[in-house]
Amino acid sequence: MKLKAQIIRTKRKSLSLKITNDGNLEIHAPLKMKTEDIEQFIKSKSNWINKQLKEVERKKKFAIQFDFQNFKYLLGTKSEKEKNFSYKAYAQQVLPGIAEKISTNMDIKFKSYRTITSKRVWGTFSNKKELSINYKCVILPIQLITYIVIHELCHSKQMNHSPKFWKLVEGYCPKYKSLKKQLNDYAFLLQDKQIK
Ligand SMILES: [Zn+2]
Questions:
Q1: Model's pTM, two decimal places?
Q2: Residue 149 above 90 pLDDT?
Q3: Domain-by-domain residue ranges, the chain?
Q4: Which terminus of the chain, N or C, has fewer Cβ atoms within 10 Å?
C-alpha cells in the first residue's frame, strides 16, 4: 500500500501522527524540528501506522459492500428498493416507537422526540429532555439503535461522557463497548448524501 505523508509544522512542542480517513499520514511537527528527527519518529511508529492503515482498509471494505442505489437496508437487513423509498419517512414511522419502548424499559423518560438529519451524530439529548435520533439509524441493526437510544437517554442523568456516564450506560447495556466499536464502522453513513 502506498502511503502519502504530509508534514504540518506549527507552533507546537511535540510530534503527533494521524492517519486520515483516506489512509494518508499526517504528521504534526514543531516549526524547527529537523526532518531527520521526524523521519526517525515515523520509523519508530511503523507498527502503529501499519495497524491504523489496516483498520482504514477494513472500514473501506465494510462500506463498499453497501449498494444504496439498488437496495435498501433496514434494521440491518438488505432488500430490494422500491422506486420512491424514503429512509426519512420510514425512520419517522418506526424510530419513535423504538425509542419509546427502550425508554419504558429503562424507566428514563424524554419530554419530546425528533427524527433529525445530521452529518455528525447519531443522536442527541438536550437539557430540555428532548431526544433526537438521526434518521439514518433505521439502517443499523436493532442492537446498535438500542445502544444509541440508551446512550442518549443516559445523558438525562449525566450530561457528559465521564466514567460515571459510561458506568450508567453499562448498567443498561453491558455490551456497549463492542457495540460502540461496531457503530464506528457505520460512521460512513453519516456523510453519505445519496441516502435520503
Ligand atoms: Zn453522548
A1: 0.87
A2: yes
A3: 5-64, 71-191
A4: N
